[in-house]
Amino acid sequence: MNKNQRIIFFLLLLMLLLSILVFSRMPDRIVTHWGITGKADGFSGKAFGLFFMPLFSFFLYGLLAWLPNLDPKRKNIELFRSTYEGFLVLFFLFFFYLHLLTILWNIGLKLSFNQAFAPALAVLYYGMGLLIEKAKMNYFIGIRTPWTLANEEVWDETHKKSGIAFKIAGILSFFGFFFPNDYAWILLSSIIFASLYSVVLSYLIYKKVTKNNQ
Known about the structure:
This protein is mainly α. The protein folds into two domains: about 1-100, no CATH class; about 110-214, no CATH class. Helix content is about 70%, strand content about 5%. It has helices spanning about 5-20, 45-65, 75-80, 80-105, 115-135, 145-150, 150-175, 185-210; strands at about 30-35, 40-45. It has a two-stranded antiparallel ribbon. Helix 5 (about 115-135) runs antiparallel to helix 7 (about 150-175). The protein is globular.
């Protein structure tokens, strides 16, 4: 088990431990979901609400760690394995943060969920941009369009530029902290921007590369 794997395992255990420690202090029915306006709109029993996230995170980590082994291009994944595992640390730190927010809300700290959520998601998107920039051609991680998967040059150029787009999306989504009432629009626009840009860019680069190779 390497350093990143140990960090993730510690985070998941800490999530589980927190749930056990606060269980007796929680009401029988707790808030587990907040709508786009930041208002609580989803509830569940405290056992499900406290233990679903930690247990699901253990399952999800096992899946994300195992799936690259099935990739026919897994040798390419090894070229950016450390970046991928670093992103998984960030990803599960994000899960841990959401779990902590849920606990704090339900024990009485009624914070602005959108304001608390925006910086965490911004960091996650920025980290995704760093991962995308480093990703080599594979079938599980990155911008997987017909054009990137058809040509390694297209893959590399698309990912270098799309990584920047996801970093920008992260920066844009951070502004939800200052404008919590408009956070849904800020978040959607940043996601749509990065996603559409990446798809269209991959097609345009493919056309350019295939034309140059004719």
